Amino acid sequence: MPTRPAWDDLGAFLQPDEFATVATVTPQGGVSRSVMGIFDEAFLDTAIGEYDLDTTRPRFTARAADLAGLGRHDVMVIDGATFVVLTSPQADGTGMAVLELARQEAGDAAF
Hints:
Layout: H1 10-13, E1 21-26, E2 33-48, E3 51-63, H2 64-67, E4 75-78, E5 81-85, E6 90-91, E7 96-103
Antiparallel strand pairs: 1-2, 1-4, 2-3, 3-7, 4-5, 5-7, 6-7
C-alpha cells in the first residue's frame, strides 16, 4: 500500500497564514460553519460570435471532506462578500474539491 508523502498534509497547507481563507458556509436549512480553503475569482473574457462576455468565475477549493453535503443554492461568505453555490463539490482525486460560486450583490434575489 502506498504511503502519503509528507507534503500531503492538507490541514497544514490550508492555514490562513499560508494560502487559505476562512469562509462561512450555510447549507439550506442547516447550521453555519467555518471552512478553510482557497478562494479564486479568475477573470473570464470570451467571445461567442458577435457577443462578448467579460465576467469573473469565483471558485472555492477546500478539503473534500469539509465541503461534503454542500450543494446548489447554499451560501458562502468570503471576506465579507456573499456567494451562492452553483455546483456540488467537484472532487479532484487528491482529497480536495472545488465549488463553483456566483457573487450575490446586495438586493439580488437568491438563485
